[in-house]
Amino acid sequence: MTEALIQALATCHRDGTRLRAADWAGAVRDEADAYAVQDGVARALGWPLDRWKSGGASAQGPFSHSPVNPVAGTALLGVEAEVALRVGADGSPEAMCIAVELVASRWAEGLDAPALLRMADFQSNAGLLLGPWQPWRALDWANVAWRLAMPGQPEIVRTGGHSLADPAGVLPAWLKHATRNGGTIKPGTVVTTGAWGGLHAWTGPVRGTLAFEGLGEFAFSAAA
């Protein structure tokens, strides 16, 4: 049934259809199955695996990881304010940028689908918008002020809010996952590192500005 789900999700990515979670009950029994589905769908779609998302509930984990769609998707459910890192072959950060993760689902139930099915579906990823790159340097992340502004929505202004208080904190767990089957990391691989302030609901064409103290401001847009 795992192989059937791989083919079904790959079809959803190609034609924009959605699956009903009830039809796939038992197809993903655990995280290992979910990651196997991710790997299979990425292969079926020909993704280069040079973009990833990774996050953790705390510095001790648990952590979760997923390849990222190289093309911005459609039918969005929302966006997440993030900081992305560009890493070397050893997984260490070399550059960073402001990032906006696009969130969507190939499940008809959206974010109400069971957690393992959402994990299998690339953790509801629909692409990644990246601001200008700049050299990596450690900031006082817990006290970094940031601001998200989107048309017709109240501006979000906050300080801190990353679950690990350090975006680079996800990299050891991500590197272990990405190389678990004997693979290697391409220099320049991008890893987005978890949401600041959670999911910000949004549908339709996405545009706005996201600013982080010390990183500047990123004016983003994507058709949806």
Report on this structure.
The protein has 224 residues and is of the alpha+beta class. The protein has a single domain (2-222), classed as Fumarylacetoacetate hydrolase, domain 2 (Alpha-Beta Complex). It is built from 4 helices and 12 strands. Strands 1, 2, 3, 4, 5, 6, 9 and 10 form an 8-stranded mixed beta sheet that branches. It has a 4-stranded antiparallel beta sheet with strand order 8-7-11-12, with no helix packed on it. Strand 3 (78-87) and strand 4 (93-103) form a beta hairpin. The longest helix has 15 residues, at 31-45. It is globular. The two termini are 31 Å apart. The mean pLDDT is 94.
Content of β-strand: 25-35%
Sequence of secondary-structure elements: HHEEEEHEEEEHEEEE
- Unreliable stretches covering 5 or more consecutive residues: none
CATH architecture identity: Alpha-Beta Complex
The CATH homologous superfamily name equals Fumarylacetoacetase-like, C-terminal domain
Fraction of helical residues: 10-25%
- The tally of structural domains comes to 1
Tally of helical runs: 4
CATH class: Alpha Beta
Q: Main beta sheet, described? A: 8 strands, mixed
Write a brief structural summary:
This is 2-keto-4-pentenoate hydratase. InterPro entries: Fumarylacetoacetase_C_sf (IPR036663). With 224 residues, the protein is α+β, with helices and mostly antiparallel strands.
List keywords for this structure.
single chain; 224 residues; alpha+beta; Fumarylacetoacetate hydrolase, domain 2; eight-stranded mixed β-sheet; four-stranded antiparallel β-sheet; 12 strands; 19% helix; globular; Fumarylacetoacetase_C_sf; 2-keto-4-pentenoate hydratase
